[in-house]
Amino acid sequence: MSAALVSPLDSYLTRVSNRLGMATKALSVVATVTFPFVVVSGMWGMNFEQIPLHSNPQGFMILVFAQLALGLTILAGLKWRKLL
Q1: Is 90 exceeded by the pLDDT of residue 17?
Q2: 20-42 burial code (b ≥16 CB/10 A, e <16)
Q3: Longest Cα pair distance anywhere in the chain, in angstroms?
Q4: Which domain does 52 fall in, by range?
Q5: Which of helix, strand or coil describes residue 18?
Q6: Is the Cβ–Cβ distance between 29 and 78 less than 8 Å?
Q7: Number of domains the chain is built from
Q8: What is the pLDDT of residue 84?
Q9: Whether residue 20 has pLDDT greater than 90
Q10: What integer best gives the mean pLDDT of the chain?
Q11: Is 4 a residue whose pLDDT tops 70?
Q12: Tens digits of per-residue pLDDT, 32-57?
């Protein structure tokens, strides 16, 4: 390739690579934040009688608020470490 075409091609490939990196970062954040919800909901969704908070009338709301707190804590930690 001629020298005149190399610089624009490198610039284009760098922009494409940066966009891919941003998309990967966004997907990683979504996966990191939703992982605790999936794990906790999966455990409490099983049909067992000896699950904590099973007999508590406010157990569902406690679980929802605990999951939201965990997700917000993870987001705060990502922001604090400047990964977000």
Answers
A1: yes
A2: eeeeeeeeeeeebbeebeeeeee
A3: 74
A4: 3-80
A5: helix
A6: yes
A7: 1
A8: 72
A9: yes
A10: 82
A11: no
A12: 888 888 887 787 777 777 777 778 88
Cα–Cα separations (whole angstroms), residue 9 to 2, 14, 20, 22, 23 = 11, 9, 17, 20, 21
CB 67 within 8 A of CB 36: yes
The answer to whether 75 touches 33, Cβ cutoff 8 Å, is: yes
31: tokens are 């996966």
Q: In 3-state terms, what secondary structure has residue 47?
A: coil
The token pair that represents 58 in the structure block: 């406010």
| Position 64, amino acid | V
| Contact indicator for 28, 74 with CB cutoff of 8 Å | no
